[in-house]
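Structure ticket #2291
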Amino acid sequence: VISGTVTGNVVFRFNSSSGRYTISNTTGSVTANPNTTTNFWYKNLATQAQTGALDRFTMIWMPPPKKGNSGIQSVGYDPFDYYDLGTYNEKGSVKTRYGGETELKSCVDTLRGRGIRPIVDLVLNHIQNGASGADKFRFTYANHNTFEKLDPGGDNGNQYFNASTNNAPFHYEYDFGRDVNFEHPYQRQGIKSWGDWITAKVGYQGYRWDLAFNIDPWFISEFMRSGLKQDRFSVMEYWEKETEGTSEEMVTYLALTDYRSAMFDMPLRGALEEMCNESGDFDMSLLTEKGLVNQAPQWAVTFAESHDTIRPYELKVSITKDKMMAYAFVLMSEGLPMIAYNDYFLGQKADQGYPDDPDDDGWTGGTLTTNIDELIDLRRKYAAGDTTFLYAGSDLLIMKRSGNEQKPGCILTLNDHNSSTQSASVNTGWPQGTILADALDTGHTVTVQAGGMA
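Resolution: structure written out below.
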């Protein structure tokens, strides 16, 4: 529903992929009514599942479902009401940015019906209510009584939130909102109860921990051992650069959570970005040591891009060239690989002209769907077993997956030199006479020589 007074020529554009609309050449004012705006993300995802477009994936990491402090504009990382899934009229709208409760549950049902596990983005910290001073710790949900207020006494006195660093978690940071005090028994039980509620209400089958280093690691263990959440998959966002938090620190954090959750491999992802963008100046041998995948691969979720690394609306560009090299390493390595939605469906680059062009959805460079599908299929057919780095030079990396009873194994070669062919003789560990065929170019073969050399 569009309302307002308009004089003169009007140009109205609606972009179906982004949901953005632009009105220009007006001398009046035009506004959108958020209560009647169609928010179709859940419907869009369900349609993609129904058409089989997601069939190569085992899990889908979905956006935070709760009502945010910025209402219908919220992408979900400013949580206000954990029990409002696009159900109640608060913060200016009933629906969230992604749709209403009915659409959410229908989408989850559709994913599960296709054998895909839906993963909920928890966002259990930095709660916001838009207030300041003492009021910033007071939360009133006037529209429902599903759950007691976070501050049932009316004045928390620093019981439910960390107003100082006294009860700071592993990595204290409060810039994003109210820092939850997980040591308070009411807060602890309330959040665990919500975890059971959202799991049963919607049907999620796994969890993604936003800003995990802002949460006490013992609470992550306690949460994942309680109620309906037991034995389910979860993955932590432990966002640190190598200069701020090493891979060894990540391993320590995993231990402090009693190994109840996997972890996104941030250090590896940083190295992959350098490999792709540095036009051959990156030292390829660093891939043999960087990241959680080289420390504890069974707990590593590897990735090339995410919603945090590339954002058109912030002109955050991330990997700008040779991105398939990063995906080749991610999809042939140990660990659990993650594919970015934009690379698969929208475009591999952020358009630097966005948002000035109203016909632009912010993405450019074409999608990588065909290339990624090819690597996913190869992973499923060949990549298994331990990793051995057969050769690691400044421009050339040769990596072997040993295989298992179901998969024969494979060798990945990556050359990041900007212009020159690279080669090396390596001991494959396979018998003389074995014929190795290039899975991406089956007309090219290499025959293993004496001593396993090729």
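Closing remark: The first helix runs from residue 41 to 50.
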